[in-house]
# Entry
Amino acid sequence: MNIRNFVIIAHIDHGKSTLADRFLEITGTVSQRKMREQFLDQMDLERERGITIKMQPVRMNFKYNSEDYILNLIDTPGHVDFTYEVSRALAAVEGAILLVDATQGIQAQTIANLYLAKKENLKIIGVINKLDLVDDPEKIEMLKQEIAKLTDQKPEEILAVSAKTGLNAEKILEKVIEKFPEPKINIEKPFQALVFDSHFDAYKGVLAYIRVVEGEISKQKLINALATKSKIQILETGVFKPELTTVEKLSSGEIGYIATGLKNPTLVRVGDTLATNPNAEPLPGYTEPKSMVWASFYPEAADDFDLLKDALSKLKLNDAALHYEPETQEALGRGFRLGFLGMLHLDITAERLKREYNRQVIITTPTVSYRIKNRRKEILEIFTPADWPDSSQIESIEEPWIRLGILMPTRYLGGVMNLVGNYRGVYRQTDYLGMDHLILNFDIPLSDILVDFHDRLKSASEGYASMNYEFLGYKPGSLVKLQVLIAGESVEAFSKIVSKEKAYNEGNALVKKLKDIVPKQYFPVALQAAIGGKVIARETIPAMRKDVTGYLYGGDVTRKNKLLEKQKKGKKRRATFNRVQLDSEVYLKMFRNAQ
# Structure
């Protein structure tokens, strides 16, 4: 059986999905009548944003030198937040096409994905895309030399193609057959397969996407999920054409899916090994993804808690990097604390909950996890300001740091250095990539780049810079809890963890934002930002004014003054007793503005 299993890896927007479209056309996998742009991007969200969010496998048949070949392609995401998707796809294949946009050149995520592929010992072939947009042969030649250096190829071996027009796309498939190794085939051994993805089907239960490593499997067979100890009787076996297409059996070396019939999404995990022998040695799987960013999701209507819980469990099946656990806040009720790989991952998760499960949620300000050693020498992991202990109980604080790599044209070096100088970053080194590109390496606290760093980086480099980061570990930090008081009462939902040197600016910005959002009351409302009981910033929302003198006409001015004085005393008395009741709309506006 002639099989080639491979992926396309690249930076975001370098043309992976468009190249996959050409492969589908060349191999006749999808008829011209059904063809549409970004065919493998199944979600409307992916096509709207022009990005791949979920890896998508497809099986293609191709004839080369009078022989029939099965080509299993996995189209992967390009954004740094979905690196985990890429790493899972790489574990299921033997080769990778490294795609580089001719107009943008090598970008940060190009190199990050290349290192992941090398770690898996994959055969890599470099390809330059968007040849139709570049008229300069010297630029293409220089790019070939840069890619050749990275992929250990000769410059003349690098193919230049146009995925849009289909120019030289067939040559890539020929090179895939020539250069990529065949998978090792062991049909005689007992069945073993690696689960590299999954999703939930209302009728067939959990569908596990698998790479069969040893043996073969067909429907009605009984197998075991080694990590969860669950037993599975297979309802259906199939392949991706790219729609799910049933086949009689899946054999060693093939990529396909099995319908498990299981209605509990937690019984099949991504990265698990499926085997006929319950005591078999698990295959080398994946490391658990580490959540980098945390935010709380609360249903807009308190009664929708169980519906949100059900939606998250199904979404978790399709997104192995998503982590969630229940939590409660006095102001917002019952909800969930969610862990994400980055801000785009958070944004996409919220959008998928809305579109796929019709769940509207309130999202708290994104934060990172902190480690605190208290006076009793206990190590506490803190995810929300509400859990932050009193400063008198804190012995030391640690926060997560990352190694940030910024790839850019040399001419933007000054602007980007000035930008990073405004953050708590520590410069490490500069790596030169070719004549006019370089990579700046910094160590920086993760919390500093969460919200607006990427937008500022694009502004400083006129859109040319790209960034990638990896987790370094926890380092000591000078951090404080910034409390928000509304009419003298602390509102934990608006509290933040900030560095001491930024506390005043953060507090000032916070109360100014609240002043525009909190509705007026019949008495003046004080908005205060405080650290450990000391107020560092304040704004006041003036009272709503009722015209108590409107019915007066003429007469002595003392009558008017008497009524106004009475109103003033009433407002003062009301302010001492009244609380400000905030509805969900205030939280919604505040947290939307925070992202």
